[in-house]
Amino acid sequence: MDDQRVEQVARKRRVYSITWVVGTAFGLLIGVSMLLVLGLAVSANMQNTFSLLNDKAVLTTNSLERRLRDHLDLASQAVVQLKTVFDERELGDRLEDLRGELIAAVHANPSLDALVVNDAAGDGFGIYRSPTGKLWPFRRQQIPEEAKLYALPQMTANSPATWGPLVTSGGMLYANVTVPLVRGEALIGYLTAAVSIDELGRTVRQLDEGEHSTVFIIANGNEVIAHSDIEDFAAPGGEVPRLPVTIEQLGDRALARLATSKPMDNFEQASAAGVEVRDLDIDDGGPDYLSMTKVIAGYGPGVWTVGQYYVASSISREVQRLFGSAVVGLLSILLAVGLSVLLVRRATRPLAEISRQARFVGELDFDKVEHLPRNMVREIDQVFQAFNAMVSGLRAMNTYVPRSLFRKLMRLGVDQAAVASERDLTFIFTDIVGFTSMSENLTAAQTADILNEHFALLVAAVEREGGTVDKFIGDGMLAFWGAPDERADHALAAARACLGIAAALREGNAKALANGGKVVRMRIGLHTGRVVVGNVGALDRWNYTVVGDAVNLCERLQSFGRDVAPQDEMVILASDTAVSRIQAQSGGMIAAGAARKVGTHRLRGRSEAIAVWRLDDAVDPEHLCIPGSGIDLAG
């Protein structure tokens, strides 16, 4: 009991690998140093956060504003320059006379998508650029649907270039600017240039900084005309919203909060540049956003808003760059840590390997134990070679000592379990009928193969029921139950092993008959008695075995099988003592027909007659003993 308690305590005690212990200790030491350095870097970065965000707000919005103005101002400059040319020409009834100048202007200015000249009566002629890049002439009155899309702004002869409302045509969105055409001081027509907003869409996508950032342009306070993440708001069917679209129709929660969120007060530098920074709190539990916007006037009836918003919890790119500078300072430390970890792993790898191999040795699974190679470290090399020699010796011993016995002795402790003592055990003795005459026609190799296969069958059945193989005697085997580990049901387990051997023999014989081989017939003796069990021998030659008259009686029962049923495939004879123990260990009952008494006989070499029973070898070992379903052997 003390040994069991010690073993239980050892199992509960937590153990750690040397690699883990050394690596953890070293990692903690370096980790504390890294955290201190990182803490200083974070503290400095936090102090610079608002300054960086101010710079970010100004740079981002100004860049977007500059690109928008560059794109649209080219159109206004183009119509102003053309106005000076057209004002000097005589505009008669043939507007087609201007076709050459319009084509040249559109061709020379890639930002222009259309140029239209309208007279005071509303009739117009123009040139537009198709998606393929080809220029086509058109007359407004010939395309009434297109004529309805755009209404000329109210202008006088002295009006400057005026931007009109956005127009959607052919699935594309256009901004347009108009200048008056005059003769003398009279207004005689209008010159309008149209510019596609698609270029602005490409611009906002270029300025998008990643999945946490969104760039947008809003016209007239509520019309989204460019959005870098428009695909994120696709309908369930996958259809992407077509711009322009209102904020409500788009479903962008961050843009919906722009009108109700107040500018933050701690961004004075951004405010001075006309940029407003807002904290867009989302009420439905989603992430909060930080927006940077700037209002631009002069490109239509209403004002335009350009800006960007990003997830407030994400770190801005500038802050990340500052952290990067701190990381550069830590690279030397990380490199030292990496090299140290590699050295630790290199130094402890042999110990981990021998620990892994030792686990297989402890489990007596020598087939998995690998030969340890030589090592450049002298002490480790000596341990490896000693381990290899030990494994070789254990493998050799395990070859000649039954594996089941070897494992039991190792588990129970050889010093105590192998001490000779008297015990009540159950034995079986097996023999192949007529093996001598059978082997006369076989070679030595064939004989060895048959015996090896036969003994493998016997050993498997014995070990399956927890028995111990004592020895092989010619073509026979002696096995016993109840030692070295004690068990109360040793007779019952031995009987199940006999029936298991019988089932395996029948299966093997069936295969042999199918392949034209020979059938093997067996006799088994089963007896329970008191014997001496333990180490028996002298000097350095010891054998763990059983000694006593009960063993001899078991062998006599096996031999008596030739008189009971000399031609049967399997004969299992048991003594009255063994059957009584089976009865007692099974609750007093065994399956009906599992055993029958064959009489009282005086066996060879015995002075007294004993009752002999024959077990039915066709009984399923699992149903040998079923309380309530059999017969009382005592009767």
Report on this structure.
This protein is an alpha+beta fold and 635 residues long. Among the domains are: 100 residues, no CATH class; 230 residues, 2-Layer Sandwich (Alpha-Beta Plaits). 44% of the residues lie in helices and 24% in strands. Strands 14, 15, 16, 17, 18, 19, 21 and 22 form an eight-stranded mixed sheet that branches. Strands 1, 2, 3, 4, 5, 6 and 7 form a seven-stranded antiparallel sheet that branches. The radius of gyration is 50 Å and the shape is elongated. The C terminus is likely disordered.
Question: In short, what is this structure?
Answer:
The protein is an alpha+beta fold and 635 residues long.
Secondary structure blueprint with pairings:
Elements lengths: L1 H11 L5 H70 L11 H10 L5 E6 L4 E6 L5 E5 L4 H6 L12 E2 L3 E3 L2 E12 L2 E11 L1 H10 L5 E7 L3 E5 L17 E2 H4 L2 H4 L11 H5 L3 E5 L8 E8 L7 E8 L5 H46 L15 H23 L2 H10 L1 H4 L3 E12 L2 H5 L4 H21 L3 E6 L2 E6 L8 H25 L7 E17 L2 E7 L1 H16 L5 E6 H10 L4 E2 L3 E7 L8 E6 L14 E2 L4
Parallel strand pairs: 17-19
Antiparallel strand pairs: 1-2, 1-7, 2-3, 4-6, 5-6, 6-7, 8-9, 8-13, 9-10, 11-12, 12-13, 14-16, 14-17, 15-16, 17-18, 19-22, 20-23, 21-22
